[in-house]
Amino acid sequence: MSVQDSRPPAVQGGSTGAEVPRGRLAALRQALSALPRAALGNLIAKLMMVGLGLAITVVVARHGPQVQGAFALFVAVESALLTLFTGLGLWLARQMSQQQQDLADGQHGQALPMLQGVLRAAVAFGLLASLVLVAVSWWARAMPYTYLWLLAMAAPFLLLVPTATGLWLGEGRMWPINVAQVSAPASVLVGLGGAWWITQGGQGSRSTVLLVLTAWVTGKSIVAVVTAFYALRHARQRDERLEDGFAGSRLAAFLQKPPGWMAQWPFVATIGITNVIGLLNYRVSLFLVERFDGLSTTGVYSVAVTAAELLWLLSSSVTVSVYSRIGHPDVKVAAAMTVQAVRINVLSTLLAAPVLLGLAWWGLPWVMGPAYEASLLPLAALLPGVAAYAAASSLSAFYTNHLGRPQLSGAIAGMSLTISFCVGWFLVPMWGPLGAGVASSTGYIVAIMAAYGVFLKHAGLPVRALWQPSLTRVE
Fold first, then answer.
1. pTM for the whole structure
2. What residue spans of 200-264 are helical by DSSP H?
């Protein structure tokens, strides 16, 4: 997910404190009116995911900080596995996005062979990753790394979701993506409820950790298999409809042989490496806290990270809904859509951040337990950087889907990672989780400023285009 400006469009000139909120709300309403309706559905799905994600966090956290810490680190390793191979799904999304324009020009490419190719690759890479995970689990001595054999068993299935949903992402079809996104945490929550019933809220035992992690990988694996089969069915029906439409027409001469991802493996590999760098950027603070303060403190800090990153669900819903339009071959159209998404992301997160902090300050220790009161100050330190970084997904989509240069996202995420790690290595031993929050925020804010500059250069836009809609209006 990539980058952003810390000055919202509404906060310019000499406005007073009373005028700023009204200006932000007016600008947000104006920006929202330009979004496709699919964004609303995706936002609703994201809100459902927020509720389910919070419920999962509460259930796990109630088992105690040690279980929460093991769970957070296990999920971080799983996320690294998934992001390493997301290039397959994004390659497919880019092909489908470009085909939308090809169809308008009377050309037709088949989706099913492309989808089958990337799904086979996902299973193969998952099996390869399984061997590595089993080896790490065999040699590890500490939780949760001793349980990575669970992730090894699920790896070939878990990779199916980010790969298969690339089909719908490129077409701009949101509801199948929404269903897959909501079903995964819903199924996990059911499994966690069973684990809670079996252990009856056991605190920190190895058997409790094992049950929690088993529920996580089982729920996600079931949803992944169902999603893959549904995507194959949809691709087959799509191709059949298009072939029927082209039958007997001179346009049949334009039938295209679908490209294979192997021919563009550097693009796929670059996306994977870039996304892993991005994930490390988000999770390096967790591993620093574990290194200096132990697993229980990591569990407390991970709650602050989870709460802060809820803001990114707002921004990612906007980006997913316009991903295919950001990939438009015309730079003016792509840049205009990107700027529109960035405006919405900045304004919505600025409005939501103080609300999120207030709710957490009031309810988090009460819902999760007194031990998690220590996560509130780290949360306050994280929110400025998280809010600044909320439009990263939109800018990353421009780099990847329009320019075809995911390495730009990787360079920016690498900058943020380097800053966060260096500052965190100095601050975490002194301030603990609070130092980790300050370090992450610092990395996000510095990197987002650089990312804006990169985007504006490639889009051929001045800085004021971010708050002056007339400069990005497409006739």
1. 0.72
2. 206-246
